[in-house]
User: What shape does this take?
Amino acid sequence: MSNVIPSIRGFSLALAITAFGGVTTAHAVTATGPSVNLFNAATIESLSNTSKTARALESSLEKVINQLETQTALYESAGCASSNDAGCIQLRKGVKKNYAELLNEIQEQLPEIKRNITSTRDALGKQMVSELGRKMSPGDLQRLLAGRHGKLTPSAPALGKAKTGRLSGLFEGYYNLVRRGGNSSGNSTVLASQLYIDAVHSANYLDLIGAEIDSQHTELLLELEWGELTAQMTGTVGNVKQLLWGTEDMRQDILNVGLQSSQPQEAYADLYVD
Amino acid sequence: MKLVNILLISMALGSTVACSSVPQSRSVCAIPDARTVDTFVTAAKYNLDNSSCMTSFGDYFDRLIALSRENPGANNKQAFADLIRSGITNGSISKRDGMARFNAYFEAEFYSLKTDVRSNCVALSDRQNDMRALDGELLKKRIGLLEIIGDKEQFRKAQQFYQELTVVMDAVRHSCDAALARR
Assistant: This one.
């Protein structure tokens, strides 16, 4: 399950950057920082598509998952596990039907999300190789993160605590972060790097979810005993919920980067290396 | 006979001088037995002015680290700068070595990255090596920034650089590998 978190962050970042692509674009460079262009038009378009498909999946699954959880809770609280009461049988059928619907929905939308994430990963990867991999040395990377080029510069203001929450609620939090501090080259470099790594993990994780769902053929679900069904549902629904809504917000860690000031070191200028 | 006597006396004198010169040099270059950072640096700099003590710089530097860890304070940074400058001036260490030592201990940024001029796709191909260098330097920064001068803010900054660099370097390395694999 630990693989889920990068996926969530990948989606979150995708959404955030897409929404405010113009602001996060690394064309916007601090006065003293070197210029890098990590979020080009192709990357932003990919992010935009990822954002749309993630949002569509989120809204289409939300209702089904809520229904499923309500039905399951009712089934458990009514003691239906050990009863063949007509109401319980009806309830069990309803759960199976909803679960099958959930699987179908995911199965239908997963390939498009996977395609978009892969496309985002590749577009961003291409820019990273071109801008950071081939044009820069490790020392240049460090200078970029420090937000300076040739000399020490004053700091940007420290970022505040970001809001946590569901995927669709992340927009505002990201907007504030980006507006206040996310437009420096060092910042967008870390952001792009984290997004790239998350896209790699997300693509891998989506493969796993896809394989898990493929193995749960809906026709077989109808034959499952309640215990087997709930075990499968708990795993799948849990994975999907984490993928879409998450449990942890790490944006602050990602964005609160390279913003501290460098202390003037004139007294030791002869011993320091830029 | 006289010639033999002269030779014997010369040899005896020569060996006496030789014997006395070795311990004399050792004691001149011995690590100063000072209890405070300032007096230690003064004594070490005095020793380093003696050309026969040039090779002792490393010992002095290590002793200064130990002594300043026992006596932490912001002024220790100046003491290290003084010792290193003295070492550079009298030729005990190169300027590059002096800067490497000072930056590794007292600068939030990582010196080990600054000296690599290769492109990242080439330079970052060996993750284990990169991480070993960063880990080793972060340890020195903990000693220098945190334990010797007590500058928590700068050490936190070093930690943050470490985290950011790890993320960015991993991403760049992965993207370079992926590009290579696609060829």
Observations:
- Residues 12-24 of chain B have pLDDT under 50 and may be disordered.
- The radius of gyration of chain B is 24 Å.
- Chain B has three domains: 1-28, 31-93, 106-183.
